[in-house]
Amino acid sequence: MGTLQSGINLAAKFSKKAVGGEDSLEKSLSSHIQVITEMRDFFQQCVDRYGEVDDSNASALASVETPR
Q1: Which of 1, 5, 28, 56 might form a disulfide with 11, Cβ 3.0–4.6 angstroms?
Q2: What is the pLDDT of residues 37-66, one digit of tens each?
Q3: What pLDDT score does 68 carry?
Q4: What is the dihedral of CA 35, 36, 39, 44, to 10 degrees?
Q5: Quick one: how far is CA 67 from the chain centroid?
Q6: Phi/psi at 4 (5° precision)
């Protein structure tokens, strides 16, 4: 952004917006990745549990005698 001090300061400010600053894109993306990873793990647990319950219900229904 040039050789003027204001340009150098502005470049440093924008640089910290990308990496290293308190509200940087790097930190924001890292936080989003963590949340999405936790969501993925949670949904996988839901799918796994759904399969277990479905199998259990199928077994229970298979053992029920039906009148003819």
Answers
A1: 1
A2: 999 999 999 999 999 999 999 999 998 888
A3: 80
A4: -140
A5: 50
A6: -70, 150
- What are the Cα distances from residue 35, in Å, to 29, 31, 41, 48, 50? 10, 6, 10, 20, 22
CA distances from 47 to 27, 44, 57, 58 (A): 30, 5, 15, 16
Confidence check: pLDDT of 1 > 80: no
Type of residue numbered 13? K
> Contact 18/25 with Cβ under 8 angstroms?
yes
